[in-house]
Every structure is written in C-alpha cells, then in structure tokens.
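agent> call fold_tool(seq_1)
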Amino acid sequence: MIQCRPSIVLVAFAALWAPRLSVAASAADAPPTQQTLRIGSKLSTDSVILAEIATQLSRGNGVPAEHLRQLGGTEILFKALLSRQIDLYPEYTGTITQQLLHDPRIVTEPQIRAALAQRGIAMSQPLGFSNNYAIGMRRTEADRLGLSAISNLVNHPELRLGFSNEFMARHDGWPLLRDRYALPQTDVRGLDHDLAYRALAAGSIDATDLYSADAEIAYYDLRVLDDDLQIFPQYRAVYLCRADLPERWPALPGALARLPGKFDQAAMVAMSRRAKLQQVPEAIVAADFLKSTLGIRGQAQVSGFWAMIGQRTLEHLYLVSLSLTAAIILAVPLGILAARWTGAGRIIVAIVAVIYTIPSLALLAFMVPLLGIGVWPAMVALFLYSLLPIVRNTHTGLRAIAPPIRESAEVLGLPAWTRLWRVELPLASASILAGIQTSAVINVGTATLGALIGAGGYGEPIVTGIRLDSKALILAGAVPAALMALLVQGLFEFLERFLVPRGLRSKPGLA
C-alpha cells in the first residue's frame, strides 16, 4: 500500500492547486500565440527595466504583453527567442557579435541585422546608451597602487580578481582580457555580478568587471580602469525580437520605434540607481520613464507583499507536488525491481545516482534546450532529483526483510504479487516513506532554482533580493521555503501513522 497512498494524497493535493495555477502555468509554458506578447529579461537590473518599459509601452498601444522576469543569462534568453518561447528581449550589440553570432567578421550593424535575419530575428535601432564592459577597483586602492589603466595590472600579480560567472566564460570576457593584456593574476574567482560589488566593497577582492551603466560605480566610489588596448567592443542597447512580430501585432513596430534615441547614459544610470539603490519597483521606474519621456501613462503592475507571497506559494506548491508525485509513481516500482533482481538493481541505482550528482544549475540548463523555459523544465529537473532517495530506500527496505519471513510467505503458498503487496511492502514501508520524505524536503529547497528559468516560486524573491541587495526580499523567499520544508516533513510524519504498521514506526510514541 505504501506505493500508492502517498501518490494519491499528493495527486489530490496537486489537483487542488492546479486550477488556480492553470493560467500562470499556461502563460509560462505554452508556445507564443497571437494573443500575448512575451517579453523576457535577464538577471540584470537594466535588462529588467528595459523589458518592463517595452511591456508597458506595448500594453499602452493595445498589445497584450507579459514580462517574464529574470529568466537567466544571455544564452538562455537567446535560445528562448529562437525557439519562440519569448518574442522580445533587450540585448547589447557587443554581446550579439561576441557571444551569440561567433563570427569575427560581423562587426557593423548592417552585418548584425543580416546575420540575425537568417535566424528569423530582427534588431531595433540603438536605444541611445551603451553598457560596456569595464574593469573597476576601489578608488582608494587604485590610488594607493597608482593604477589608472588595465595594463597597469600586469605589475601587480598579487591582486585578487573576482568576475561575474558569465564574464569568466564569455569570449569577450576574462579569456580575452587575460590574453590580450597578458595578466599574471592567478587568484581569479567567478561569482554573481551583484555579489561581486559587495565583495569589492568589503575588500574580499581587488578588482571586478563592471557594466558602464551600473549605478554601483558611483555608489561604491569605484575607479574604472582605462581599457588602453581597447579590447572591449561597444555594447549599444537594442531590442531583439521575432521577425514576424509586425504580422502578429501590427501596432507593435510603431510603438517600439518611439524608444530608440530616447535613452542616454545618465538617464539609464539614474533608473538603475532608483531600482537597485533606492529599491523602487522596476515597474514604477519604467512607468515614470514613459510618462516623462514619451508622455505615456504606463501601466505599472506591482503586487503587494502578501499577494506576492501567496502567488509564490502557489507556484512553489505546484512545482513540488507534481514533480514529487511523478517521482513516487516511477521510483517505487524501480526500487522494487532493483530489490528483486540484483543485476538490474545495480544498474538502476547507479543511473539515478549519476543523475542526482549533476549540479542542479547544470541540469536546468540541459532542460532549457529540450523543454524551453518556465514550469515544465523545472518540474522535470525536480522529478529527476527526487528519484534517488525513493529508489534507494525502497531497494534497501525490501532487501532488509529477513529471509525467514519471505520463506514463511512462500510456504503459505501466497502468490508473488500478494507476498509483495501484503507482506514485503508493509515491512519496508517505513524505509520507503523515509525516502519519499527526504525527496520532498530536498525538492522544496531545490525548487527555488526554478526562478532562474521563469518557473516562479520562492526563488523569485530570492533572486530579486540578491540582485537588489534586499535582505527583506531574500528572506521573503527563504523563510517560507524553510517553513514549507518543515511542514512537508511534519506531513509525512503524520502519514506514517496510517501507512506504516504500528510496530515498524520510527517514533515509539506513535506505536
């Protein structure tokens, strides 16, 4: 009975929540249609602001639009655009040439447009500001060492460098910087871009990569080192979109054509400062820009704190309950098979163990090309992570049954299925339920990573809080996730009363 009752409970639980989430789930995963323009943004504040501006401008011109916030890095957004998971997102010309097209012969805007057109992608005119790569240090440290240009770093191999993870891997990032300047530093670390600023201010690192439109440059009083070899290209802000958007939404091109040239460096830095340092919601920042620059009344949609928590709770429950239910349905039979046949058991346990060892971020990245962005790739990843504890505990619980008990059941002439159902599974039920409980608790925590690919849940305020340096937002995601994990653990301890025979329960007080 152990293999069916938890499944029934969780399926019913998921069914309870699914109707309330059907709209959100379909919006996050269905292919784009004529009815909804899907606009994506990266994890950076400037990207969120630009995407929000395009979203509100589209709505103001009669185009229903939704903003899929903070979907990840460059590759995830571009692949989502190519696969029609999104219709538009803000990008930079330097990133397009260096990171996306991978062709050194493509340098001019006409060449970029032609190369993108071959992929069914169109590029807007430049918006009016650049967000170039740069290398920065604390001004006091730069003055102490007499550093004003990147080439000066050659004389200081002891400096500790900390770059954003994307910069570490990009062709136009650390590999280019290291090779062209022949930098001798060996203490070079990858970390989150927003955390790098705090590490720099705290003295944990000596230099990091900057974006020239970042408000933190002035806030932390940083020295931007001169790129004296001029290795970094220009990163002019543009929008990338599907080439067929004018056919689907005829009003859209005219609306978006009002934006190029309306941004300048100072305006973008000011908007970034309001969002990151003053923690004004990006939707309000975007609405204020549209009103002051284009005379358009933006439609800022800002949820209250408790409404946000309620929505993220529903999303998190949806991810956890369905992925865990699917894992139980598959993992318990696999565990039974592994216990019955030793050779097959080794293979089954080895396979699920290998899957479990794949880093969660890597597994999510593998899912995106196969399933796109949103709920389903996150759910599949969570499902795969949930298999090992259930399979292993089912296998262990069945194998631990004393041979005399098995032999007694056989002597009584019970068929194999009856022995499994009436004798073996009840005896192994405590171990099986413990495996399901472990998977459930792990699932609750791992589900927070789904926010990186647009799946929502408690990871959404955590990711936003890290980007905005807001401890309140981080706690708004972390604390409910921890409470949910405790509630899940308590739920399975309660289920133990009904699913585990009295003498096999883990807690003597429940006997």
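agent> call fold_tool(seq_2)
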Amino acid sequence: MQTVEEPVKWTEILSPQYLTPLAIVCMGVWLHAADGLLVSTMMPAIVADIGGIPFIPWTFALYEIGSIVAGAASGLVATRYGIRQPMSVAAIVFAFGCTLSALAPEMALLLAGRLLQGLGGGGLMAISFVAASLMFPTRLIARVMGAISTIWAISAFFGPLIGGLFVEFASWRIAFWIFAVQAVILAAWLITRLDMSARPVEKQQSERFPLFRLTWLTAGVLAIAYSGINIDGIYTPVFILIGLACLALFLRLDRNHRTNRLLPENPFSLTNPIGAALLMLLCFAAATIPIGIYVPFLITKLHGISALVAGYIIAIEAITWTVMAVVLSGSPERHDPKCILIGMLAIAASIPGFAYSVAEGPLWLVAFFAALQGAGFGTAWTFMLRRATRLAPSGEEQRVSAALPTVQRLGYALGAAYIGIVANGAGIETASPGGSLEFTARAIFLSCLPLALIGLIAALRFVSPK
C-alpha cells in the first residue's frame, strides 16, 4: 500500500538537532549577501573620505573575482576536508578583509580588503550550499533553501539600512568593523559548536584546483579594469586587447580539460541553447552592474539625498527580485520560455530608464526602474536554471548548473571593468552637477544598451524550441 509523504514542517529544521547547523548556514549567507548592498550604500562616503573615484568599479570587480575563485574551490575543499575547516577559514579571510577595509587610509588598501572579502564571502556562500546538502537529510533541504532565500531577502533590507545608518550617524569604517566581528563570531562558532557529522565525501580520484585557468581569468578582468583608470588613446586599447586575450586563453584551457571544466562545451556560442543561456546571463549581468556601482554615488550627488535613501532605492532591486521569484516559483515548466523572455525584456527596458531618471529624476522614477530590473531577474532566474539543466547534454547537467552563478559573477566583474572605462572616459572624477555629471550618468547607462541587445538575441535563441 502506497503511503502519502507528510509535508515537512518548519519546526523540524528549528529543532535543537538542526538549529545550530541552520544558524551557521544562514550566517554564512547573510555575511555574503549583505556585504554588497552595504558597500554600495557607503561608497559615496568612502570616496569622499579617502578619494579614489576612478577605482569605484574595482571595489566590485575584485570582490566578484574573489567570489569566483572561492566558489570554484569550495566544492573541492569541502569534499576533501568537510565543512568546519574550510568555512572557518573563509570566515577568517572575510573578517581580515573587513578589517583592512575599515583601516584603509587610501583606496589601495580598501581594494585589497575587498578582494579578501570576495574570497571569504564567496567561500562562505558556496560552502553554505554544500553544507545544506551534507548536514541535513534530503527531505529537509527544501525548507533549508527556503530559509536561505529568506535570509537573502532580509539582507537586501538590512544591508542598506546598516550602511546608511553608519554613514549618517557614525562612520562607514564602523560598519566594516561590525561585519568583521560577525565573521569572527561565526568562525569561533564553527570551531566550537559544529559537530563532525558533515564529513568529507570519499572520492576515487581527487580533482585538482583549476589555479592556472583562474589565474588567466583574473588577469583578463584586471587588465580590462586597468585600462580604464587613466584613459589613453594607446594604453587603454592595448590593455583591453591584453585582457581579451587572457580571457580567450582561459576559455581555451578550460575547453581542453575534460574532467573538471568550469564551463560547458562551447560556452557563449549561439549555435547551442546552453551557450546562448550563458551568453545571455553574461551580457545582462554586465549590463546591470552599474546600478550597484554608480547609482548611489550619482543620485546622492545629483539629487542631494542621504546615503540611507540611496541605499534603499538600490535595495528595491533585490527585494523585487526575491518577491517575484517566490511568487512565480510554482509556475509549470511549459511557461519557462515565456517567463525568461519577459524577464529579460523587463531588464533591458530598465537600462534606458536609468539613463534618463538617474540624470534627470525624479527619484521615484529611479526606484521604479530598480523595481523593474529586479522583477525581471526574479521572473527569469528560476526558470533559466530549470530550462538550462533540462536542455543540457547528458552528463553535463551538474556542470551547467554550477556554470550559471560563475558566469553571472564573471559578467559582474567584466561589467564593472567595462563601465569603469566608460565612466572615467566621461570624466566622472571631475564632473559636477549642472551638466557634466548628468552627461556622465547618461553615458554610463546608455553604454550598456549594446550588451542588453546581445543578451536579448541570446535569450531568443535560448527560449526557442530545441
């Protein structure tokens, strides 16, 4: 006689048996998720204090590079060493990065801190997902993922609040200290409270960490970012070409690895739906990164608002992303192409909207386009993952799933490098309200339209019948 499985109650993962592992997983997600919005909100105050306007994109590009490297390593180290040791190290690295940022007398030290925050935060995030699969029985994992999604939404609300409050009433440095202390507490908790039930999984063959390939990937992003610091008719295009060559070498080396490739075969190619999906994600991630990098800086300068208000305008994107993802998560698979295309069209429409509203106002219009962009991602993201894994070649499903967040972060890093070239070329360091800064704001967003157009072409290929 077939029995009906009873639904899992929230009280089960909140029981004493699972409460500590759940708290540790959620804490790891919180530190990573809140950090990005925290820094976006504080960036106008940071550059007003220590300078370095041309390096604003670097604070995001380096964080994303660190997250890519940590994400690529996390599965491997968790397999070899379990959860406690790698996650403790990630928390300590994150804390050290926050400490450097808090002490930074100039932008160079802050950038070093951001890189370490990316390594530590990216590691915490990735290992948290590994921990969810190792530390909880299968029937509870859905509830654990629901808790993680809730923490992500909470971070979207409180990240800007924390950053804005410290900028308004204390100092941006104290906010970094607060996050450093939280990471130290997490590391101590892991060492003293986490039991050893989440053991390493035995493997017949040990995989090698793709250090050589990730070195070329990092070099490519850094070369493109470097080309935008001082715009020059010779050095800027030369470093862009060097960066593109490094990225091409990374793709070639990755393609030649059959056992532990980071990306599927023929990534970013419109000749197959998986390549089209990755190209779509890369382009839209790059095209939308300016909202986190420059919108707080621009609207505080152009419209005279506080850091707290600017932070919440940015947070609207993350909140609507989460809300739409939750509301539409039960949609049947046959609607996946429609949801993906509608989401991508909404994101593309937000870009010229930002070009107008950030420069001209009013602020409610900036908030509207932030909501539109977040709703577009929320509408498309869940179904993008489901459709990509369904269309993946046999045996490639796991690699495709892992490649999506990696490519998204690569898009953010490349987008930060690219938009830095545009912003510095448009004179953002010396621009002032009343003409030149408005021109810079329009240039930043309009330069992202070609990326969005390529992304839409790739989206059409991805959602077309196989």
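agent> summarizing second result for user.
Confidence is low (pLDDT under 50) at residues 1-5, 200-205. The two ends are 40 Å apart (CA to CA).
agent> awaiting next instruction.
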